[in-house]
Amino acid sequence: MRILFAGNPAIAVPTLESLIASRHDIIAVLVNPDVASGRSKKLVASPVKELAKSHRISVIDPEKLTSDVELKVASLSCDILVCFAYGKIFKESFLSLFPLGGVNIHPSLLPKHRGPTPIQSALLHGDVHSGITVQRLAKAMDSGDILVQREFDITQWMHASAVEEYVASQSGDLLLQALDLLEENPQVGVAQNHEEATYCQLMGSNIGRIDLKVESVIGIYHKIRAYSYDPGAYVLWGDKRLFISRVTYDTGVFGEKIGTVLQYDKKNGLSVQALDGRLWLKEVQLQGKKRMDIASFFNGNRAIIGEILS
């Protein structure tokens, strides 16, 4: 097949690598424009763009999918659009440029967790299973017919970064299976049960804010698993954010004011009173500082005992 691949972040890179190594032809990649990064505001290309350049694959990087972009894509005469974490909505006029339409890799067991943050949503809800779906691109978000799915277990210690790494490692093989099916039968696919659909939300900069007075310790634990690495799960210590990246908990332990930092224990970490139990902080990052294990943090911040986190 002649393929246009649309994607941006690192999670999509192994899939593009699988396509490059396959019998299919990657005619071009569709990516977002380079973005300014750091204090110097140096323009940085997406991981997918960097991979494409290293293989001398043509790159299309528009701000918007305009009619001019459609004309350029039409001139490529691709058979199919393959999308993984591209981040833009494709109009019907764009999808009509491909005889086989478009397919999308979505990191959930659709119709569950439709939307932009399926991995975080699965962790936030405490799911013990998730999956990868290759679906047809449709007008409504993540509502297309399912070509192939693969389920996997989520262990209680997995954070979003670990789930993303696993999804990245498996998606290329699953996509190649889907492309084989489409070659055999262009009409292949199983309709989703839309009545069972659930949806996830965009990640704003404050979505990881922890409210110790309202949230259960189990809920906080899942929030940290979902958001600890991006965009960050945090409480406030005075006027600074204290980001928490690893934590355990005890339920049913009361007696102190919510938010009180109770004690430091070499084995368990730093204990904080929450609504329905206690959190044991294992790894943290004070705003403006580096992430560190709790022993290193406590050595430099012993005065935190007795303080109130909010």
Automatic annotation (TrEMBL):
Family annotation (InterPro entries): Fmt, Formyl_trans_C, Formyl_trans_C_sf, Formyl_transf_N, Formyl_transf_N_sf, Formyl_transferase-like_C_sf, Met-tRNA-FMT_C, Met-tRNA-FMT_N
Enzyme Commission designation: 2.1.2.9
Catalysed reaction, written as an equation: L-methionyl-tRNA(fMet) + (6R)-10-formyltetrahydrofolate = N-formyl-L-methionyl-tRNA(fMet) + (6S)-5,6,7,8-tetrahydrofolate + H(+)
GO molecular function: methionyl-tRNA formyltransferase activity
Formyl transferase C-terminal domain span: 208-301
Keywords: Protein biosynthesis, Transferase
GO CC, one annotated term: cytosol
Name of one Pfam family that matches: Formyl_trans_N
Protein name: Methionyl-tRNA formyltransferase
Organism: Entomospira entomophila
GN (gene name): fmt
